[in-house]
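Working notes for the structural subgroup meeting. M.R. asked for a predicted model of this chain before we commit to crystallization trials. I am recording the input and output together here so anyone reviewing the notebook later can reproduce the run.

Input as submitted:
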Amino acid sequence: MARPSTRHLAEYISHIVAEYDFAVTAVPSASFTSTAKTGIDWEAMALVEIDFDEGARYYSFEGVTAPDRFYEAYVVSIGNITREVDPLNGDYTVANVQVTLSNADSYWTTLKSTYGFRNRVLRIRFGNKNFGLSAVQTVFQGVITNWEVRNKYIIITARDIAFDKLRSKVGGYLNTTNFPNLPSDQERHLLPIIFGEVSSVGYSETGALPAYRVNPAVGQPQYTYLVARHVCKSILNVYVYGVLQSSGYSIRTQDINGTVYQLIDFTSDPKDVTRPLEFEVTVDVQGITDDGLQTGTLVTNPVDQMQIYCEDYAGYASSDLALSLWQDAADKATAEDILGAWAVMDKETTHSDVFRRFAESFAVSLYM
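Returned structure, recorded in token form:
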């Protein structure tokens, strides 16, 4: 699952191979011994669920009984499921999935006379039958885009809705709603998201990340700069035009419309109007913590960092992620002392861009 190879990475963004790539054409009737620690026999089980107006309907290869439902034996085959970032070329692939079901008894023809199929949500679940339904993972969720009856079969094509999230841009820009005194000449940058310790110490020692001017002492005596859209563990160093500052500023957080921002207040104006093309304030910073508080523990494991990004900023729920596999990867990264240090702050960045850049930095495969 995980192949971390790079040691400490004090880089900006970073490898996700978010992939399921398998074809199911039959479910083995015989079990085989798992290599998992539990030693429990492994009997593969693939299930298909489709949401209709009155609720979900359930399908399987051989008929599966669950405590509150029955998966009828209509599934003939499930095609390849692919979500992949290739760490070599950086391309993100999200493919359609085809599910072939039996129509020998005209079940689907009859159902089609009552319901439209297009845009129905279709889920594919996969796991070990011996662990029960609660342990089965959702490996695909999409919407039906096409269907075709062929002889005694119906072939349903579904588009992975993960693609919709991936191609959307990372939201949250500097704005006058949250920062009413934002200078008119301040570019509307993406509000930064910072993971790990991003530092210039030992390198340029002029600050690793910029801070953005959000209040030029309007209605207050201080000049306020924004570091991140979240609480940071620590602002390690503050620089003005690359010169380390030892005084003349204070660090604080502020809740603005439900988001807590990390800010720096200066007692005098750090901006030099004769240097308009430079960031006047830069910082070395420790980013997001495990509990979102300054007193929390800095999150340094790159797998844990990406999980936080997915759930807090990319619109994924925990149920969208194969968490047991993510935990395996996180454990592997911990064992090999791999640290992540990166920030999301480029304008026009999509979530796919974030995953792709992550893929270019870490040799790790994560499943969603």
